[in-house]
């Protein structure tokens, strides 16, 4: 059973899954914004281009690698992005980032997961959007966080994965940020390292 986390809550991934986790996946899903038509004309959906990001930091807080729509794989291959979905069309997760925790460089201490709206609409306008963390082994949903209706910003620092010995802790952050890409959010992200 998945946990529904609120901002600031954290869970030990090993304790939650009951086993040592090896690979986790961040799934982000959303739908376009409903457009109201006039007398039945012009109704439909306005495309929303949310972008999932995984930012890898060392113990000093230095960004050592990033996976996002312009770099779909980390340098060591341990983190992979499914590709850029520019509309939110379709069922299920629209973008995913898969993280092989066993292959992450030992120098990586924190992975920050974030999302930006490249098309610029605020999260208040997006009716359905979520992120979820899944244990690849058995496709078990470990945690879920609703993104829709979060405010007038167009970026969100979703969560962190933090190395604690041989275990990883997942923390739901849910902090507002502004900007079309993760670059714009780095000053806000540093507060969560």
From TrEMBL:
Domain TerD: start-end pairs: 1-178
InterPro entries attached to this UniProt entry: Stress/Tellurium_Resist, TerD
Alphabetized PANTHER family for the sequence: CAMP-BINDING PROTEIN 1-RELATED
Protein known as: Tellurium resistance protein TerZ
Organism expressing this protein natively: Deinococcus daejeonensis
């Amino acid at each position: 059973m998945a946990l529904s986390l609120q901002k600031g809550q954290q869970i030990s991934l090993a304790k939650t899954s009951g086993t040592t986790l090896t690979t986790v996946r961040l799934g982000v899903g959303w739908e376009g914004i409903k457009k109201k038509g006039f007398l039945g004309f012009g109704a439909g959906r306005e495309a929303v281009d949310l972008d999932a990001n995984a930012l890898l930091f060392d113990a000093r807080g230095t960004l050592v690698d990033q996976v996002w729509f312009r770099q779909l794989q980390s340098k060591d291959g341990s983190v992979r992005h499914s590709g850029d979905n520019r509309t939110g069309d379709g069922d299920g997760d629209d973008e995913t980032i898969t993280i092989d925790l066993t292959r992450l460089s030992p120098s990586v201490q924190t992975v920050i997961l974030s999302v930006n709206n490249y098309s610029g609409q605020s999260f208040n306008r997006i009716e359905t959007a979520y992120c979820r963390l899944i244990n690849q082994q058995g496709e078990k949903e470990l945690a879920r966080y609703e993104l829709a209706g979060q405010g007038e910003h167009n970026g969100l620092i979703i969560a962190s994965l933090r190395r604690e010995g041989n275990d990883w802790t997942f923390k739901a952050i849910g902090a507002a940020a502004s900007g079309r890409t993760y670059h714009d959010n780095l000053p806000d992200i540093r507060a969560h390292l």
